[in-house]
Amino acid sequence: MRTCRIPWPLIIMNLQNTMASNNYDILALSETWLHDGFPSSMFSIQGYNLYRNDRATRGGGVAFYCKSHIRISISKSLSNDYIEYLWIQLLGYAREASIGVLDHLTGTSV
């Protein structure tokens, strides 16, 4: 089983510092390796909401961190043994906007 050698709190602290110093509104992540055994509260970052779609099998996974004031709707998500994706739609703006993140198992076609 793959393990992370850097403690999760340090990863989250570094991620939070990077997001704050660059004033990111939304950050998309792939290869999160998260699953039901990892509650979202373990990865909370002040001022951001976490939206995630974990792979049904080992590895993979996708997620978004969105600033708390940004209203979004999950428009599409899929997760199976080969692929997972997550699409969010930004709400309350004059123009419609959707953002997606995708991950697929190496060696498979999408």
TrEMBL record:
MF-aspect GO terms: catalytic activity
Domain of life: Eukaryota
SUPFAM superfamilies per UniProt: DNase I-like
InterPro entries xref list: Endo/exonu/phosph_ase_sf, Endo/exonuclease/phosphatase
Span of domain Endonuclease/exonuclease/phosphatase: 15-95
Protein name: Endonuclease/exonuclease/phosphatase domain-containing protein
Organism: Popillia japonica (Japanese beetle)
Classification of source organism: Eukaryota, Metazoa, Ecdysozoa, Arthropoda, Hexapoda
